[in-house]
Amino acid sequence: MRNTLQTTVNLTLALLLSTAWISTTSVQAQLGSPSGGVNAKAMAERLGADDGFAVSLQYSGDIHGSLETCG
Amino acid sequence: MGGLARRVSYEKALQEQVGRSIAVLQVDAGNFLSDDLTLPAMAAEARVKNEWVLKSFDQFKFGAANVSPRDLPYLSELMKKPVHSESLKRFPFLSRVISANVVPASADVAAFKPYIIEELRGSRLGTKPLKVAIIGVSDTQGTPGNIVSGYKFLDPIAALKPLLLELRPKVDLIVVLAYVDRPTAKLIGTGTTGIDLIVAAYQLPLIQSGG
Predict the structure, then answer these.
(1) Which value does ipTM take for this structure?
(2) Residue-range definition of the domain harbouring residue B115
(3) How many domains does chain A have?
(4) Percentage helix, strand, coil, to 5, in chain A?
């Protein structure tokens, strides 16, 4: 039970923190190359080694009707 | 459109990086619409913003969005029985706005779906799709009583338990979108069995307060 709780909390916090981080950095600056394509090195630094993951769950919360950067 | 545009750009960059071999699932945990509808100076602007959020979530193929009390002032206008069919035509994403515990308090408004099942596909998943159930729950975020904009809030855990029993044999992954504070998110995790992931949102107190 304790492990389940900790896993749940850790996952929840990890998701929250990752969103906060993503929302405060520019995707273009982080990932874009000068030519407008993907900067493979920046993506690799952000994602770490590709371990063969098959699914990416991306999420938001509290955007409160705003499509702009700061929610 | 910095926020959503950035998010969609991130998805595109990620897919480009992995040769479009993965599946991406986009979800929203709640409070995605403005509730500034009672302020005359802001109501028109809020409605326009909300329309664009619903259109954008549809265009960018979001899997689901969870109902929170702050979404209900606008959603309840679209969910009124006489206009519900027309609302679905205008905003197809409305069929992916979910809640297992926010239910109609009267016959005047239509019910939300309690969950959505998405079949994710990608070459890294092999030939068999990954079935993901997405369930939504919320609390009233301090609103007095348990009725907001014509909808009644049931206990989230009590609402989840039968759904988890029903869905667990049918899907590979169960994700709960929860608009609840941190202690309640923990209670949902410990008070149920069958959930693989809880994505919680509750504005700043979720992060700032202990629990």
Answers:
(1) 0.89
(2) 2-208
(3) 1
(4) 50, 10, 40
